[in-house]
Design brief:
The complex is a heterodimer of chains A (306) and B (521). In chain A, 17% of the residues lie in helices and 31% in strands. Chain A is α+β, with helices and mostly antiparallel strands. Chain B has 521 residues and is an all-beta fold. Classes of the chains: A alpha+beta (306), B mainly beta (521). Chains A and B meet through helix 1, strand 1 and helix 3 of A and strand 11, strand 12, strand 13, strand 14 and strand 15 of B.
Chain lengths: 306, 521
Amino acid sequence: MTRLNYLKSAILAVSVSFIIASCDKIDEPYVIHNKPIDTSACPVPEFPVVTAHYKRALLEDYTGRKCVNCPGAAITARDLKEKYEDSLVVMAVHAGYFAEIKTSEIGTIWGYDFRTEAGTAWDDFFKVGALGNPNGMVNRKGYPANQQVLPPGAWANAVKNTIAEAPLMDLQLITEYNAAEDKLCIHAKTSFLQPISGRSLNLILLVIEDNIVQAQKNNNAAIGPTPDILDYNHMHVMRGAVNGTWGTPVLLKENTSADPVVKSYPMKFESFNMNTIVPENCHVIAFVYDVDTKEVLQAAEASVVE
Amino acid sequence: MDAQYYKVDSAIGANGVPEKMLMNSWTNITYSSGNFNAGLRYETYLNPINGYDPRYKGTGIPYWFVDYKTGQFQVTAGHIYEQFGNGTIFRTYEEHNLGYDNSLNGIRVKFNPVKGIEFKGIYGTQRYFWDKGPGIVRGGDAEFNINDLVASLEDSKLRLQVGGSFVSKYQADEEIYNGNQEKLILPLNVAAGSGRINIGYGNFGLNAEYAQKMNDPNAMNNFIYKKGESLLLTASYNQKGLGIIVQAKRLDNMNYKSKRTENGSVLDINYLPAITKQHTYTLAAVYPYATQPNNEMGLEAQVNYKIKKNTILGGKYGTDISINFSGINSIVKDRVNDSTLLDESGTLGYTSPFLKIGDVKYFRDFNIEIGHKFNNGFKLLFTYVYEEYNIDVIEGHTGEPLVYADIFVADITYKITPTKAIRLETQALITKEDEGDWFMGLLEYTVAPKWFVSVADQWNYGNEDTERRFHYPLVAVAYNNDANRIQLSYGKQREGIVCVGGVCRNVPASNGFTLSLTTSF
């Protein structure tokens, strides 16, 4: 065999290798929709009839344990929650630079991590941390005009104005927790108070935990020791999204809202890497938002253990 | 062996360790006899030095191999380091300065049927600290040296090499949801292929490699299904006293690991080289570029020129000038459709026009180095570097602004006697961003070939926070004897990033003793 013939046969061999090279080409859809829900394990309860509808505001406080000004912002959020009670839903989203954990911190008082996939994705998308912490959003208003990020000083006014708006829809939330099985059933009902068309709306469900005592940086002696509060009581910590970072649809553009929609989700804390969570300290937060404008139309909150 | 004794220094962020001292050590043993080679590496991390992944903790033999060559065949069993082409679809290597080792545990066969043709085949699993990764990696590479194969080209000025590779990884199915409601349909086998050409003509050279990777939803790309692509182009020209090299690169979704859910610097199947200059002076290396395997487009150009001896600028010994520029941006990402977010899990993710450069600036580096020997004992090296560094993208410091830095380095060596030399390095880094301005001075005394002593200090004199204008003094002494070297240093080390070939590791701040021992026999 001449060298040239070797070359030809080698090229042929390599080409054949390419053809048989193991590869699984996946075509759309890339996902299996609607994982069957065991509704028998989570029977849908009767939702109470609501006669008075009002709009609840969602305040997202983007924070991090290394952010020295964040304890002050958390107090602003706490004061607003005390003032508006059920009309305001608050969550602390730990994301971005000040929430990062370094390898060298593992095993130290800073070796805890409150970041979540959803929180990081929102922080990246809405560019909250990009403007520094503490900062937040009220009903995610102002997107995409880049007006969505609000400093703590602007939260009170934004919450007041949002609550004063007439609601387009209502959102009810019922939770049922079975400690023996570590099973939480979440039921959310959306009722449209007027026809909505041409808008896609998604529902997001989140688990929030209160009273987690961990270290926090601080520069305000009026709040606690500086520079570190070793036993800081973290409130409203967003621990994870139950139905994905961007939620699941309750209304699609091509449809007009009519009948109420009930969505039920069974979950186990363990399966959400939430096995360090104390269910008694947890709440579920639900909110419905416009997929295009990202504006939150309605929010609700319910304790995991009554 | 590297050992470090830690003192707590909360001001600079240096944490103490309960063990007081940490140690990493590597021992390579190789045996050769004729066509037979064997080797092993014994590693001890008790416990891993800060900045190395704590999962390395332990002691053992993570690397061994036996290799036999007979005629046209060479067979290696055990742990394998190998590279296909530039490595864009397959490269396994070890770099203990980075705590990096992705060796392939399996088998490799090389076959050279005739001069000018080489086939390689590999099959195995990759190292995952003290364990193996869950994926199986297999692949083949063929390289043809056309000058050896075509008789009429044997003595030609034109030199031509072509090659091609394919790699496929297999990982069993697993349940991954993009929300609680949507389970991803995962490809169990993910293939990648590449083609390359190397052309030389006289003083000119051109190397090009294009690679493509099939749908590979993984944690690094947020589980999207788009194909990956990479293109590397290198053109060069060399003649006596002048060297020019121009490189271009485009990477799109090319992170390729043998574990889907892995997001650390482990289990990489491929290697995507950086086309930025790797600076060696301390302050010039403060902002090193780390390759962004999923999203970057860049260009690098370097000219090396030697001004001739016995000219006004060249003096008695000539003057070396090296000018280098590199610029890296993002690629353009367009939404697949109106209802899909960019990079949304469980979708194609995005589309990207191949030749369009993205708006996000990652890195700029313009630098010039001038080296001149004035006489037999006196040498000066001057370096100026201008950098723009996207600390948000490269180091993940979300929201921090682009760093603009000017760096000046003067390196003066004076030979007192043929064996004794004194060297002075002065460096300044000037920036308004990040930690502000730095100054560094280093004085080094060498008694060749055995002794070396140095005293250095880095001073963050321009930190906006006046209480953080720290000094980082460091004293080091080293002793060489034949192939043995022992170095002891004491002082403070600032937090920073160490990069080798675009792969980086964060080094935390520390204060204390460091002992480094290298010996071979």
